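Please check the following.

. . .
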Amino acid sequence: MIALPSNADLATAAAEAAETARDERYLEAAGLYGAALERLARAYEADPSRRQDLLQEVHVAIWRSLLTFDGRCSLRTWVYRVAHYTATKHMLANRRVRLHEMHTLDDLPDIEDDRGASGSAVEVDSLRRLLALIERLKPLDRQVILMYLEDFSAEAIGEVVGLSPRNIATKIHRVKKLLATMFHERNGQ
């Protein structure tokens, strides 16, 4: 007589298969979007040690969430949705601490210049100032502009944040205009 597996054995096997699939999807997501997640963390958190904490929180949140990923949206959309939600939650949780902190020039985030020696100091300074301005935006505006800078379409951004593509296009236009105004005011132009 052949022994059939029990319901408990079947449930255990199913759970193990789901966890294996989650781990494989996480490795795929981390490989595809790891650099973008680092840029996202840099935009949400200026302090290098907190940025590493945020990045770790984002990766853990993505890993945990992949058990419920059902493929109704792309993996990219899912990863960004979870990452932006986690980053916003992190930022709001640390808001009170930030209001009382003082910063020195040593606290400015290091921005890696992939162009090597050909990059000018003016361009690096402009990029730092732009990132600082983005950090000052409201969470939704920050999320929209960061995804726009990552080359997401208005439709894809809308899927993540829950707004219509037309609303996203308007928001992008307004945020770009606001950033340009703030950037040029600081230059005295």
